[in-house]
Write a structure and sequence with these properties.
mainly alpha, 3 helices, about 75% helix
Length: about 100
């Protein structure tokens, strides 16, 4: 079980890493454009954002599968709970 503190720390770290990657991408694109001829700038510019877009799509697909697995486990737990014997309230129990 992940605590609220750990989840917050993870979200903050991910947000910081995303912003750092954005800052680095700008430097990579500018340096790639400076290293190639004018007519090759389009290919050099697309070299960095395209793989990142693919990685994000793969990550989203993985999260979708994790969501589906979580729903399956939650449904299984709910169905399992329905088969547990019902407890009687202490107020409804008869004395011997």
């Amino acid at each position: 079980m992940v605590s609220d503190h750990s989840a917050t720390r993870l979200a903050t770290t991910r947000l910081a890493a995303t912003h750092l990657a954005d800052i680095c991408n700008t430097g990579f694109i500018v340096s790639a454009q400076a290293a190639v001829a004018w007519n090759k700038r389009g290919a050099a510019t697309s070299r960095y954002p395209f793989p990142r877009a693919i990685e994000q799509a793969v990550g989203a697909a993985g999260l979708h599968n994790a969501y589906r697995l979580g729903c399956l486990l939650a449904t299984t737990a709910l169905v399992g709970a329905l088969f547990l014997p019902l407890r009687r309230s202490p107020a409804q129990q008869t004395r011997r």
